[in-house]
Structures are given as C-alpha cells and as structure tokens.
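B., you asked whether I could sanity-check this one before it goes into the benchmark set. Here's the sequence:
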Amino acid sequence: MFAILKREWGAYFFTPLGAVFIAAYYVFIGFFFFNYNLYGNSTDLRGLFDVLFTVTLFLIPVLTMRLMSEDRKLKTDQILLMAPVSSGAVAAGKYLAALSVYLVAIAETLIAALIVEISGDPEWPLVFGHFAGLFLLGSALTAIGLFISTLTENQIIAAIGGFIFGFLMMLLDTIAGIFPANSAAALLRGMSFRLRYHPFTLGLIRVDNCVFFLSVAFFFVFCAAKTFEKRRWA
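And here's what the prediction gave me:
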C-alpha cells in the first residue's frame, strides 16, 4: 500500500494536477480571507469556511478523476493487476495519496487562523470544528471520486460523475422534503452531507457525524477495490 501511495503522491506532482489543485485552494482561501477578515477587519472565519464547503464540492472530483481512470486508459492497470499486491491495498494507497494532497490544500486555513490570532481572538472551537468537518467531508468525497474513477477510463466523465454524485449527497435532505414524514425521509436526511456537516460549523465534533463520514469513505474505497478486483479475473 505504501508503495502505491508513494507512486500516486509523486504522480500528482510529476504532472501539474497536484500543484494546480493546491494552488486553487490557496487562491480561494487567500482571496476570501483577505476580503472577509483582513479587509473586513473581522476575526470570524465562518465566511471563509462556508465558501470552502462549495469549493470542495467542485474541486475534489478534479483531484480524483485520474486515480483509476488514467491507469485504465494507459493500460498501466495491467501492471497493478499482476503485481503481488491486493486490490484493497491499491485502492487504499491511491485514496490516501489523494487525501493527503487535499489535506495540504486545506491546511492553509489553519495558517489564516494563526494570522488572526496575532491581531485578534478567533473562536478556536469553531475553527477546529470547521476544519474537522472540511477534512471529513473531503474524505468522503475523495472516496466517492475514487470509486467513480474505477468505472471509466475517461477522466472528464469521472470528474463529472464524482461531482454529480457528491452534489446529490449534499441535497438528500432537500429530496427528503418531497416524501411524507416517514422512515424513508428520515433515512435520506440522515445521509445528507449538508446536515451531517452543519454541527461542525458550530464547533460540535460529534462522534456520530465523524463515524458517518468515515463510514462513507470506507464503503466507497471498499467498492473501488472490489470493482478493480473484478477486472483481475475478467
């Protein structure tokens, strides 16, 4: 698994994708931090994190679109299929590589909070809550993007598919509104990324929400591994 992780991490920076992804986050963080906090003379970082919620939804599929689809297109997946490494290790290595790039990207929010600390008093429970929520949200979306990437060799389709799937997960609570108040509606609301994310914005790091996002991540990494495994015996 660690060999796959190292390979994928290097691939992100051998091509411009990793650097461009991180730079895009830094541009968004820098712009809105300056606009909301420095120029607006505010220590409240909630506006910045609210923007990053939407940014994450759009950018994660770009980060994950090549994870499996590129190997499939270039036929280098045949090397992985014949290698003495399990499909689970391949999926986990690729997932952790993408997640680590994402973590580097959102780490600048903590730097912004430290800058605010110099001249003000940021609400650190809210900062840590937002950061934890953003990381867990990204963990789930990265796993979804990985799984979608196993289904196609076209990176554009993988990116669009990852965005659509993630967007639907955000809107499950809205979709639940068309159902009467029954168990189906409750289930949809319970699976809504938006509702699960909201407590983090209040500085509440609840165990059930953490377990939910981690379970979603594990499930889709597992599905990606099983999909990849099927091709080993095809």
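One thing to flag: The mean pLDDT is 88. Otherwise nothing jumped out at me.
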